[in-house]
Amino acid sequence: MTVIQSAWRDEDAEAFRGQFAEQGADLADRVYTSRLLGSDPGLVLHGGGNTSVKTQQCDELGRPVDVLCVKGSGWDLGGIAPAGLPAVALKPLLELRECPSLSDEAMVNAVRRCLMDASAPNPSVETLLHAFLPHKFIDHTHANWVLALANQPDAEAVCRRVYGDTMGIVPYIMPGFDLAQKAAEVYEADPSVEGLILINHGIFTFGDTAQIAYERMIDKVALAQRELRKNPAIRVAPPAPSVLGAVVSETQRRVLNHLRSALVTAAHSRGAQILVVRRNQEILDFLERDDLDDLARRGPITPDHVIRTKQKPLILRPPAAPDQVRGYLEKAVADYVAEYVTYFETQQKNKGTDKKRLNPLPIVFLIPGLGLVTAAPTRSAAAVAADLWQQTLVVQRAAEPYGRYQPLNDAHMFDMEYWSLEQAKLGKKKPAPMAGRVVLVTGAAGGIGRACAEIFAAEGANLVLADVDGERLSETRRALAKNHKVGMTTLAGDITDAAYVQRLCDHAVTLFGGLDCVISNAGRAFTGPIAETTDALKASLDINLLSHQYLAAAASKVMQAQGHGGCILFNASKSAFNPGPGFGAYSVAKAALIALAKQYAVELAGDQIRVMAVNADRIRTGLFDEKLVAERAAKRGLEPAAYFRANMLSVEVTAADVARAFLHLYQSAKSTATLFTVDGGNIAASPR
Fold this sequence. Notes:
Elements: H1 10-19, H2 25-38, E1 50-58, E2 64-70, E3 87-89, H3 90-95, H4 104-113, H5 127-132, E4 137-141, H6 144-150, H7 155-163, E5 167-170, H8 177-189, E6 195-198, E7 202-207, H9 210-229, H10 250-265, E8 274-278, H11 281-286, H12 292-295, H13 306-309, E9 314-315, H14 322-351, E10 364-367, E11 371-376, H15 379-402, H16 410-417, H17 420-423, E12 438-441, H18 447-458, E13 462-467, H19 470-483, E14 488-492, H20 498-512, E15 517-520, H21 534-562, E16 566-571, H22 584-604, E17 609-616, H23 626-635, H24 640-643, H25 655-667, E18 675-678
Parallel strand pairs: 5-6, 9-10, 12-13, 12-15, 13-14, 15-16, 16-17, 17-18
Antiparallel strand pairs: 1-2, 1-4, 2-3, 4-7, 6-7, 8-11, 10-11
């Protein structure tokens, strides 16, 4: 692989200046190079790093004010816009240099007081560092290859040897007022430097133009790459793409299933967890290192990562015997929790602080033979942790043969992990009711299935969507993704194929770690006199009964292995109780489906797996085309227009109404073997 190169293009810069002409060329250039930096995960990830520009804005009276536009909280460089670079009046920021000291809280208050727009996001915690340096454009990243040098026992000497007098070297200090003061002092000792190396932290570069600051960053990172390449044992390359799916074996899925269960049932549980698996040959090779237990547990490559990954991963080597896996994982998780509690109490005592302990459960798991696994209440949070650790493995793989990978010690990591300003990055948003839960929906491209996917996604559930129509299934996923930021995967296939159904459940375990709820919804209508529809009856039994059996059998095994219950919901029909003429093949199968649901409810109750069914009637879905509606209306002596309101309440029941019934049953934690009618009232179809 060639070393990193500048991605600056004059024509692209001009396009940004045109797009953001109203905000001015300075801010347009700042947005452009910020996005260039943010597009490279080897430089920054998930809100890491920051950038700034010193420019002018007018106040309410039209007077020009010197301002610092610096990255705001909650923005990623890769997608930043002018709104993500809040303007802060520069003069009062510079006056803060005269303070002998400044607490973090006082610093945040002082910076926020200087905002030109009071509704703007909080400026970066490193705002003062950007302000105290005089340069117009300043870039800050956590570049992998620089961190491989900056996380050495003799990091200062290494960086001086590599960069000479082109870079100032700043010893590790937590972000805030003290770091800003020290960085300014290092720069002022030699104003010819083009940037600063922050030991154990990252790199700053600066310049009079956005292009100069950006290309200095690229040059310094390339220099680190070339230095590391001098050692033939070091592979200087970004993480390879992760491969999922068929490469995860049945044994490995069992590990994932039991691991998710161990996290859900453990003391201090955060509730349901979503697992993310990353595996490729590079990861698998790294996990076979003889020094894995030592190297991987030394700590994150930059302290900024600790709030999303914790300071150490849990390394797991599950036994081969299937009946020993659950116990091994439960003990490993419990041991990790005990170690974390000891770490917390030791640091509390040493520092004389009184902090509230964070959740002690592990987030990152390294499992030789399986891969890198992360766990969090949402798939997005688990994916963030996985992304960060993929970069961590890259840096560790380079730093160790160069000398020795030596990040910050536990005392420094504790300070960052329990730093109030760092915790603020995680936000205070209450998790969605079904965050961490995994729901499988069949017939998901149709009316009721799609409505179920919509309502469960709105509750925060992660979705496994199945349908025989792959094109419509993909369209359903795209539509859902526009409105819901949940984990979602699709797998098209024939629900009457038991092998496909098994793949569906395997897919849920591989992609999310398990399965909490199944909505067995797929079905098809068949018409004709019962005495003349033997073939139709066989086909109806295949899709309207046996497909549900295949899914319930496969899903219940996953839920039993998890050991923390689950919910299986069937879409039955009022026809099971109130069959109509010429609809026998459908009605017979649906009547049998209700019996199937009751049987599963009886047999799975001991595993805390609840099984219920919804009886709906006359829903406008793909099941009822115009011809079938006319036919069924005629059988009931109705006009087609009146067919959907022919009930006691004279109301039309929609797919969304049925979906709400499924959600209600899932939420009814103390109910099982229940049959829930959603039909506007049909006394002949009433089960009681």
